[in-house]
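Worked example 2:
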Amino acid sequence: MLKVSELKSGYGQSQVIHEVSFHADQAEIVALMGRNGMGKTTIFKTLMGILPARGGKIEVKGKEITALPIHERVSSGVAYVPQGRMMFSTLTVEENIKTGLSKEAGGGIPDEIYALFPVLFDMRRRKAGNLSGGQQQQLAISRALVTNPKVLLLDEPTEGIQPSIIKDIAKSLREIRKLKNITILVSEQVLSFALDVADRLLVIDRGRLVHEVGAADADAASVSRYLSV
């Protein structure tokens, strides 16, 4: 569903991502792991078109999207939940979700969104800025899901969230995969979360993929050495 071939990207004169190649199958959850500053967010921004690729190829279900503008990538089936969630804090929960709806949706939020995240239904009239970090993360995921993506990109979804809510998010991602049959790529530093939610782990170090393993076969010590400071 998602295929990345020899991707290069960076900022200004600095190249951050060095010929990275990986794939994610339909309905597969893949965790991209690594310390801060190793290139996870740069990869996500490049996949979404926020940063231009300096080389390589990005394909979604066989369609190349490497040079497409952001809105056309969304139309092609890519949705992005950025690090920090980027809510419209003065809009309500309902209004935030509706910003992701297409014109064809007619302004109606699908029932499945509130079924996945019941707390959002209870708080649908509340300003997003008044939600907890975990509730904002659920809201950000909901806003991405209403675009009907084929590929969902989640950048550091556990950042600033208490452990009990992290478990809820892991459960929700598994339910989303089952319900929507979509591919999920998640960047993460918390190994326990990645092992709980992902089918496969990719480890990035200094802009290069250095380790790949199925979650069921992962050796925690081998992966952790790439995550420790």
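Strands lie at 2-11, 14-24, 29-33, 55-60, 63-64, 78-81, 151-155, 183-188, 200-205, 208-214. The chain has a mean pLDDT of 93.
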